[in-house]
């Protein structure tokens, strides 16, 4: 982490090489976090780029006493995802996602399609919840954060995070069970 702090200090002084190193260091993790929630390579790449643009534009406001850099960066990523799903672009165009070219066997294709449809149903439902519930659910499931880490990211008590997560999880399960009976 010492290296990360050195890069941050240099980026704050407009060092482009340090900015590139910082982005490279976190790119794969942030991309994976976003991809798990969009299941669309191009969209995940676009949103990841937006996260890093936002990070570079606001790095001067980063305060290491308040949160780790990773926590701060994931807060930006989570907000970017929530904002995307709230946007008119998402709501009105509902872009059709392409399946990967590497589909393999028909059974694999069917399993991928069913998984993708399940994730899309969960995400569509999640997008109707309040922002903090979305953030907690996304960080826990897609970012694989602990409850303590989520509490640090969004600035609330760990007990509140657990309560909201399990409440949201119950709502999602109830809704999905209702869909299955229709």
UniProtKB/TrEMBL annotation:
Domain RNA polymerase sigma-70 region: residue ranges: 23-88
Swiss-Prot/TrEMBL keywords: Sigma factor, Transcription, Transcription regulation
One GO MF term attached to the UniProt entry: DNA binding
Biological process annotations from GO: DNA-templated transcription initiation
Gene3D superfamilies: 1.10.1740.10, Winged helix-like DNA-binding domain superfamily/Winged helix DNA-binding domain (1.10.10.10)
Pfam families cross-referenced by the UniProt entry: Sigma70_r2 (PF04542), Sigma70_r4_2 (PF08281)
Domain RNA polymerase sigma factor 70 region 4 type stretches: 120-168
Keyword Iron-sulfur: no
Entry's family note: Belongs to the sigma-70 factor family. ECF subfamily.
Protein name in the entry: RNA polymerase sigma-70 factor (ECF subfamily)
Source organism of the structure: Thermolongibacillus altinsuensis
Lineage: Bacteria, Bacillati, Bacillota, Bacilli, Bacillales
């Amino acid at each position: 982490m010492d290296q990360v702090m050195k890069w941050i200090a240099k980026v704050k002084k407009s060092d482009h090489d340090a900015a590139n190193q910082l982005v490279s260091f976190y790119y794969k993790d942030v991309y994976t976090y976003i991809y798990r929630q969009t299941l669309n390579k191009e969209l995940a790449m676009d949103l990841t780029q937006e996260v890093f643009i936002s990070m570079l534009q606001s790095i001067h406001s980063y305060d290491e006493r308040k949160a780790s850099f990773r926590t701060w960066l994931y807060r930006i990523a989570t907000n970017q995802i929530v904002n995307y799903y709230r946007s008119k672009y998402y709501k009105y165009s509902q872009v059709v996602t392409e399946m990967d070219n590497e589909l393999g066997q028909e059974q694999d294709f069917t399993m991928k399609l069913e998984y993708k449809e399940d994730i899309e149903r969960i995400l569509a439902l999640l997008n109707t919840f309040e922002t903090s519930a979305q953030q907690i659910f996304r960080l826990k499931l897609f970012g694989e954060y602990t409850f303590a880490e989520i509490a640090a990211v969004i600035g609330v008590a760990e007990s509140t995070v657990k309560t909201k997560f399990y409440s949201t999880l119950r709502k999602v399960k109830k809704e999905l069970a209702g869909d299955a009976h229709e």
